[in-house]
Amino acid sequence: MITFEGVTKRYRDGTVAVDDLSLEVPTGAITVFVGPSGCGKTTSLRMINRMIDATSGRIALDGRDVREIDPPTLRRGIGYVIQQAGLFPHRKIVDNVATVPYLLGWSKQKARARAMELLELVGLDPGLAGRYPFQLSGGQQQRVGVARALAADPPVLLMDEPFSAVDPIVRASLQDELLRLQSELRKTIVFVTHDIDEAVKLGDTVAVLRVGGRLAQMAGPATLLTEPADDFVREFLGRDRGIRRLSFISAKEVRLSQAPSDLATDESGRPLGWRTADGLAAYGTFDPETDSLRAALDAALLSANGVAVAVDEEGRVRGVAGRDAIDELLAEYAPSPPSPPAADAGPAEEAPA
Ligand SMILES: Nc1ncnc2c1ncn2[C@@H]1O[C@H](COP(=O)(O)OP(=O)(O)OP(=O)(O)O)[C@@H](O)[C@H]1O
């Protein structure tokens, strides 16, 4: 666990980048620092590996003050990934990834073998190992950056806007890849972004910072979307909070009914469309085992008759869910009503005489 206790950073020119920040980054989970430009995200991140030293307060790694650990030792246990990967331009990909193992004195053979393993782990073709960074796409370079940070198997990974320099499609695949890696590796990850969508997608916990380096709210993404602490957080989360929250509710509990005979399927049971007088009409599918309530609702909206088709992992029909079944679950997850007035406030409807 990484703990910030009343941490303040005042730069020489008097700028207070981080102001009395206290929070806990749990072990083995992704914590995202998000907030508008200049709110102190990068400063907070870099104080963890002492690229920047705090002016006051304490940052502890598993209870140990980071100031007690000399920076090279500290950084060996902390991988660091930055925007545009920051690869060494004159080193081959394999040697970029092997940077830390070389520093640790591993033999060239062992370091390169580890690098090849890592390239595969981050989803890169090992055939790229002999290239130079400029011969790779932005997304590939970013994967190399992640592989390099993982080289010495550090328990902690700091990621500073690692995916901001790539287009939205590559970005989404890098995010998915990070989630896949994390489900295997269970690192303690601190991830900085200014993109709230990225924050709620990746974060087990999201810390929203406001300019001046103050913590506005720290919560799981679903809670953040349902119960923003104040107007600043609400505005920062932007529109569609209600719909986006459905991504965090599993579709497992959606009540399924037997597929009616007007759902046409092929011989292996995969849907073909809704039978109508004019032929087959559009249908939408979701997999209750892996999809969210948002996907189930989307499937219903995409179906010509408003009925979502539930499928298994092979794409075979398991049943259907009408809007009534989806609405039942939506109602269950509706935000809680305001708490009743305190008992001593008297019954609200009794007007004073
Ligand atoms: N070396 C420095 N000297 C003086 N002020 C600095 C220095 N580095 C950062 N700052 C200021 O500290 C504040 C926080 O900067 P920081 O880079 O931590 O913010 P950020 O949230 O990461 O921003 P961005 O999303 O734009 O990268 C900003 O006002 C910035 O101008």
TrEMBL record:
Q: Does the keyword Hydrolase apply?
A: no
Question: Which segments show compositional bias classed as Low complexity?
Answer: 342-353
Instruction: Report residue spans for region: Disordered.
Output: 330-353
Q: Does the keyword Cell inner membrane apply?
A: no
Q: Which GO terms describe its molecular function?
A: ATP binding
Domain of life, per UniProt, equals Bacteria
Q: Where is the ABC transporter domain?
A: 2-236
Q: Which UniProt keywords apply?
A: ATP-binding, Nucleotide-binding, Transport
InterPro entries, alphabetized:
AAA+_ATPase (IPR003593), ABC_transporter-like_ATP-bd (IPR003439), ABC_transporter-like_CS (IPR017871), P-loop_NTPase (IPR027417)
Entry similarity comment: Belongs to the ABC transporter superfamily.
Name of this chain's protein = ATP-binding cassette domain-containing protein
Q: Which organism is it from?
A: Microbispora maris
